[in-house]
Design brief:
The protein is of the alpha+beta class and about 120 residues long. It has helices spanning about 1-50, 55, 80-90, 105-120; strands at about 60-65, 70-75, 90, 95-100. The chain has a two-stranded antiparallel ribbon. A two-stranded antiparallel sheet has the order 3-4. The longest helix is centred in the first third of the chain and has 48 residues, at about 1-50.
């Protein structure tokens, strides 16, 4: 009976260590991918919209870690409502409409694929 308990403890210990390694890998990959996403959005915004550069400079990221998860959030800190308006279009005061210019969705799709590849490589 003592050997069975020792075996269960050892298996539990190995699984615990593996879980900690996976958690660390997920955190690391999330940080790397969000930084890459910010860089890509800054470049795309600068090329697509020109202007003063305030929109492009405002992109930043934050990684929120939980007990067993990590979530990367990319947002525009300087002009928080602007990405939605530019991505989906908006109405004009004069009654017309400005069409949307998809610049976030392609980056999001690319980041999802990059995250999956990087995590598989890391594990």
């Amino acid at each position: 009976m003592a050997k069975q308990i020792d075996l269960a403890l050892e298996v539990n210990k190995i699984l615990q260590e593996y879980g900690e390694d996976v958690y660390a890998s997920v955190n690391q990959v999330t940080k790397e991918v969000t930084k890459a996403g910010v860089k890509k959005l800054k470049a795309d915004a600068k090329n697509s919209f020109g202007g003063t550069g305030k929109y492009a400079k405002g992109w930043t990221s934050q990684v929120e870690t939980g007990h067993i998860s990590a979530q990367g959030v990319i947002y525009n800190k300087d002009l928080p409502g602007m990405p939605h308006l530019l991505e989906h279009g908006h109405a004009l005061r004069s009654g017309g409409r400005v069409p949307g210019k998809a610049h976030i969705a392609p980056v999001e799709e690319e980041l999802e694929k990059t995250f999956e590849r990087a995590l598989r490589r890391e594990l």
